[in-house]
Amino acid sequence: MSSADSPTIEFEIQSQHVVDELPHDLPSSSPRSEDVAIKQLRVAEFLEDEGYDAVLLSRQDSFAWFTAGGDNGTGTSSDIGQVSLFVTRDQRCVLATNSESARTFEEEVAGLGFQLKECRWDEPRDRLIEDICRGRKVASDTGVCGTANELEKLRRLRINLTELERQRYRELGRAVVHAVEATCRNARPGETEHEVAGELAHRLIRHGISPVTMYVAGEERAGQFRLAPHKAQPIRKHLTISVAGRRHGLCASATRTVMFGSPDKSFVDQHYIASMVDATCIFFSLPGEQGSEVLRRARRIYEKTGVPHEWVNTPQGGITGYSPCEILLVPSSQFRFRSGMAVAWTPSVGAARCGDTVLLHDNGFEIITPTQQWPTLVISVKGYEVERPGMLVLES
Predict the structure, then answer these.
(1) 279 and 240 in one domain?
(2) Do 143 and 173 share a domain, yes or no?
(3) What is the CATH number of the domain that holds 36?
């Protein structure tokens, strides 16, 4: 069903404060409307397979996915947005208060075939949800108002990226790397982690990218904590930045390290091992391959290089998309990779960390956060050369 063919929705609503509005006029075709039509078909198949009448989507990542990049007004302070979506097999509706409805329709879903169900801002939003769900078997991504929480199954609908999402991902990846590498090149010993994080956030936000996770750590905290948010600690010998940035709902991750003065050999060795593990994980992330098998190969590299327990200290990676980690990959994972997915591996050894975001294709992989003005390492895996970020060395 194309979005241009979307019928007017005739939901029965009991609350006197709810109003109906006709959908916006639809263009004959646009990349976003075509993408939303794909999402509608996926939801329709889910409803048929699972025996539900409708899906309620309230999380910001779910809203962004279904609307092809829309924002439901939550910022970065919460996973749950201010606006929800109610989707049946062939219809879609925005649920919002009057304080959010105008912005949502004008800036987020204009021309995408949505109808509005609105209540006043001082009325309980749950009442709006209860009214539209009454008499229907409804799945949701939160379990609100007695709906069935099917978040994990709903995540599976969005991990196979559409053509529009893949193109947006490439553009996002380049922008994230530009911000990270520029921040590293301009960092200086004596600056605090807070100051560096502020510079990075500024660069990201200037390009419409929201920092979702941001780990900025000097040598002391990077060695002590694998996932270290920025603190007031000054940086001295080296700095590692690992960030996930979101735009159009998609999250791209990248990690870079800068050394001030002569590199410390032990740290260089740790960084090389992490890069070897990263290259191995990337190379074997093939369509049809099982996640647990890739992790087994990664653990083998840790063992061969004399650091067999390093993999236990932090997650090694997972499927990414509208969340930095849609599906965490663990040694018991039965999950199999498919073409069109994105994966972000993040191995670490001691204070050293390596990682990028990769799209999977039938004939190989595509690193969408490639180095730009940055030194590289070339790691040979089964005779194939995989390029990984090296360490940037600056004068102290």
Answers:
(1) yes
(2) no
(3) 3.40.350.10
Q: Where are the alpha helices (DSSP H) in the chain?
A: 31-50, 60-66, 98-103, 125-133, 151-156, 163-186, 193-206, 219-224, 265-284, 291-304
Given 156, 183, 201, which residue is the final one in a domain? 156
3-class secondary-structure state, position 25: coil
Return the structure tokens found at 239: 């700095």
pTM higher than 0.85: yes
Per-residue pLDDT tens, the chain, 396 aa: give them. 443 443 333 444 333 344 444 344 444 579 999 999 999 999 999 999 999 999 999 999 999 999 999 999 766 667 888 899 999 999 999 999 999 999 999 999 999 999 999 999 998 889 999 999 999 999 999 999 999 999 999 999 999 999 999 999 999 999 999 999 999 999 999 999 999 999 999 999 999 999 999 999 988 788 788 888 899 999 999 999 999 999 999 999 999 999 999 888 999 999 999 999 999 999 999 999 999 999 999 999 999 999 999 999 999 999 999 999 999 999 999 999 999 999 999 999 999 999 999 999 998 999 999 999 899 999 999 999 999 999 999 987
